[in-house]
Each structure stands twice: as structure tokens, then as C-alpha cells.
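Sorry to interrupt, but I need a hand with the structure work. Go ahead and set the record down below:
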Amino acid sequence: MNAYGSSAGSGTRDVAGSRLEEMVRSRAEANEEFFGRESEPLARCCHRMAERFARGARLIALGATPAARSDARHVSVEFVHPVIVGKRALPAIAVTVEGGPIEAVSSALAEPDDIVIGFGVGEPGGEEVVAALDEAAGGGCMTIAFPPAASIVAAAVGRPGESWDFAPPGGEHAIRQELVETAYHVLWELVHVFFDHRGLLEGRSARAVHDPGAASFLYPFLSEGESDLEAVIEDVRRSALAKSADAGALREATLRANADVLETAAATLRARFGAGGKLLALGNGGSATDAMDVVADFRDDGGGRWRARRGMDLTEDAPILTAVANDVGVEEIFQRQVIAYGDAGDALVAFSTSGGSLNLIEALAEARRQGIVTIAMVGYDGGRIAADRLADHVVVTRSQSIPRIQEAQASAYHALRELVG
């Protein structure tokens, strides 16, 4: 039965429901604790990032583990391809294990004024990232670590660079990763505030807030200087808290409103895996990094908490994606791969903030033709995918904020992974 009904027994639903309630509670507590503590440091970090970007810096994001790789790619695509109307694109690149040793690649790319952000620090496999951040800090880069590593903080003292670390609370990896995602979304969203207050950027004190150029005699107020940095920091701090509160509320709303869908989808996935099936995952842009992460999660056994499952990320093969996009069309980049790799008895999960991406719709249609069960995680009002019931199980995150949608979708697929076991 699809997501518009329910095939789970009442006993199974009760157990899953209690687990979902615990997921909601633990996320709310961690969100309040983390951003209550880190909102001011995040605001000050935004200011320092803006100063460096204004001088021509780039953001270099590092990730060594499969999950950390998804975060490195996510933050880089957000800065390079902003969805905030009217905001500038900022140079960013992800450095992950596919390109070779992270420390060597990062060292070759990083310039003294750059910003280097590391994911998976302090986790198994994250040692390369620690070494790369240490070297970057020693070379004058600004470094940001999630979560902190004592070696970075200690080594940065007296160095020409500056180091920031943000430590999400709790022992559960999924919750920490969700908080990290919200944190780097907040950095991305709020760094732009300081570009609108250019007089507050280093080396620009008493400079004009705006540059009216030849029109200065007509609009003298545009040349006003600006000096109250602390007032702007406080505004940004409050905004960071508000955004984190919105993220927490949307996570809760998404998990509660879609509880039956998640439970039914989990039961279906469990049956498909048990019969030898695999999970295919896909999405565009930031949603592509969700596909990376969900496959990483299903391939992992959660430290022995559940069984490792078969999964395939349809976004990771750049030659196939670019060949199909160039020679056939972007709408077919996933559909062609479903034909090539999909089998009856598999499952497919598609991520979209709009619910209307044509290449997802083509892939979902192909999957149905092949007898592949389909799950869609969509934002806004669900778009065409929800309206036309183009997937068997549809999880709708009702918001118009792309970063908040993506954050809540992360909670949804983390919950799905835990329910599958």
C-alpha cells in the first residue's frame, strides 16, 4: 500500500510512533542547547568571513568520511549557487577523498586569506581533515571545525590565521549532523548581512555604507559611515536564533505530519532490503548532497545499531551526468541511470525542495515502470510530485524556505534510516 494509506500493524505503528516522538524530543533539546550557546559566536564568525570574502577569499570545505563529504559538498554549492534572491555568489569548493589525500589537495589550493571549513573532525576517518585544518591555520587561513578538535584550537594560538569551532551536543551522529547543517546554512545566509554594512568590514571603518558614485551629490545619505559593529552583531545573533527556532519547529512539524508515511515507507524498505533489493537516491544541487548522505547512512551500520544496507547514489558519477545532460538533456540524467541500474524489487528515494524537478519526475516514472517502489521528500506544498501522486510514499515539508526545507528533510531521512534498522 502506498503512503496515502497504511499497511503497518497497530503494534508496529505504536513502537515506531514512540521512536518518532523520541526523535522529535531529542532534536528539540539539542537545537535549543546548541544555538543558545553558539548564536553569538556564529554571528561573529559571519562578520569575520565577510571580511575575508570582501578581500577576495574563497571557502574551501573538507570532508573525508562519506557523511562529511556530503556536508562539504552541500556548503560549497550553497555559497556558489545562492538561492537567496539578490545575494551574491561566493567562491567555494569542496575537497573530498575522491581527489586524493585531503591535506595535500587542501594545501595546494588554500591561499593565506582563505576560509577552510572541516566536517567530520573528531570522528573516525576525520584525522586527515584535522591535519589539513592545522596546516591551513598555520598558513594564515581562517578555519572552522565541526565538531571541535583540541589540536586545532591549541595549534591556532599565536598563528597568523584564526580558528572557530562549533560543537553540537549529544552522542547521536544524525542529530549532530542536522545541527551542523543548520549552522552552516546560518553562516551562509547571514554572512551577506555584513556586505550591506561595508563600513564594518576590516580596513573599511568610516568608509561609505554604499557607494553612490557620481550620484553622491543627489543622494548624500548613501555615503554615511558606519561604526556600531556590536549592534549589527546582536541583530545577526538574534537572526541566528530565530532561524534555528524555525528549523526546529519545521523538523518537528515534518516528523509529526509525516509519521504514518515514514513508518509505512520504512516497512516497505525493510521488506525490499530483506528480499535483496537496493536503494537508489537522487536529487539536484543541495538535494544531491542529501542523496549522498542517505546512501552513506544506509551503507553504514550505525555502530552496530542496525544492518548495513545496499545503496547507490545516482548523483556521484560526473561523466555519466554530464554526458547525458550534454547529449540528451538534463531531464534524462537520472532516468537513464534508473534504466541501467534499477531492478524490480529495488527502492528509490528522490529529494526536491520544489516537488517539480523534471529530471526527478522522469526518474520516478521510470522507476514505477520497472516495479521499483518510490519515496519522495519534497518541500513547499509538495509540488507536482505530491499533487499527481508521482511517488508511492511522499514526505512533504511545508515551508517556502529552501534551507529550512533541506534541514527538515535531513531529519526525515535520518528517521527513516532508524525506522528501517
Summary: The radius of gyration is 22 Å. The CA atoms of residues 380 and 398 lie 5 Å apart.
